[in-house]
Amino acid sequence: MQPIHRSSARAKDFTLGTISRKEWLWVALGCLVIMALTGFPYVMGFSLSSTDMVFSGSIIAVEDGNTYLAAMRQGAAGDWVFHIPYTPEPHRGGAVFIFYILLGKLAALTGVTLPWMLHAARLMTTPLLLAIIYRFIAFFTPWVYLRRLGFVLAGTGAGLGWLWVALGQPFGPGNMPIDLWVPDAFAFLTIFTFPHLILAQALILQLVTNGLQLTEHSNWQRTLRCVLLGLILSAIHPYSLPLVLVLLGLYWAWRRKSSWREHWLSLFQLVAVGLVSMPYLLYSLWLFAANPVFHSWQQQNRILSPNPIHYLLGYGIIGGLALIGLLYPHTWRRLRQGQFLVLWLLLVPVFLYLPSNLQRRFLDGYQLPVLVMALAGLLDVLRTLPPRWRRRSVTLLVVISTFTNILLLTGAAYAVAARTPLIFIPRPAVKAAHWLDSNVPKDSIVLAAYDTGNMLPAYASVRTFVGHGPQSMDADHKRQLVSEFFSSMSSAQRKALLVEYDVDYLFYGPNECDLGGFSPSRDSIFVSVYHNQAITIFRVVGEESK
Predict the structure, then answer these.
(1) Of the candidates 420, 440, 463, which is a domain's last residue?
(2) Could you report the per-residue pLDDT of 83-100, keeping only the tens digit for each?
(3) Among 267, 301, 335, which residue terminates a domain?
């Protein structure tokens, strides 16, 4: 690591975030490696699809993956607004899941299947995020060695979740370190999941760097770029935009408290970014407050923060180094505009425990300020070590940081190789879903077991009685009703349920059979309209049902 000589033209260029062609080639190689690592389990999944089982296209958060496929299906069918397909209550659609609606239209235009289009989007957004990550790090530090180290740690690293598993501690969302289960918190896990999360992080980081440049020098071209970034971010993750704008506003106040009259135009331009970008956020607030079905989705979508210890373990060694950098002003002052990183690091922990259902969402992009501050703290630590131990310590840091992600990749590959249920769907169920898509009216309501109800809208333009925790209105009650429908309800109670929720079809397969001994073929209210080796679909008939 060479000291920087600010008197040289090259050093001045570096302090402005200049990145050489050689650096970009190095980043491109890194992108290929990370894309190969995160893509391998999915390649396995698609290659293991057979005449018996079909890969769902998702490995982590399969239930959510099906909702995105369902939104893409609506876009492919010509819709421009999203109707929740996991609840039978009639409702107006809303302009949400815009990214997936558009992906569906692209799939329809190109003839690409929806799961393949989902992964094509993941592959296209991944290098964008990784390039912006490198650009973000380069914005704050001129040292190429630190930039590359930061890129490796951001693209492949995590915290101490692996140690939690090795010690045999409880394994489950909400009860383990965040690097094992919170995609918003780590770039690698984000890249391993869904493209809208990847794009959202890229937009946040790019908006931050452009916004910081705007606070330094007012510029209308840069303002327009920030407006565009803000508009796209608002359409994907509307709750992320206010945090970014608050951070930029606080930073402007910190820097310009004694010279605000000379720099009022840059503040005005930041406000303009917010005014243009915020209407969609206001629309979202209105939609999720005024529309009963969307309001139920919001109330049940509890993305709450775990115990603080899971944040500390999740960021692990990098978090400790960042704390060193944060506690010593001389450390973060060697970073360009390091005050902004201080604000980001201090403000997000407050947001994480505000009374809101979306607490964890404020982690979007947070790994990067933690990481850049950690790089500054690492310099101080390395100076205390003998020269021969410095490179070894950095190598050890990188290796330990990859353990959690190696564990995640290994677990994902094992789950795929074992053709785990939900990750893989029985071929007869997919065939039955395709029959529904071709032979029943759009938005017909289908009653099925919860797991089946989650899968069906990804393969057919139908609505299910229950199938997604947040999106199914009164999901826990409906899940219980389905269990009772197939086990303990009387014939009269079943008919009353079908009438109340205007059910059109009954999907009956292994999942439904496992819930109880009820046989629809023995009840005259059901007429078989489709049958294969494992699935029977019944149409609900009779005056009681319609």
Answers:
(1) 420
(2) 999 999 999 999 999 999
(3) 301
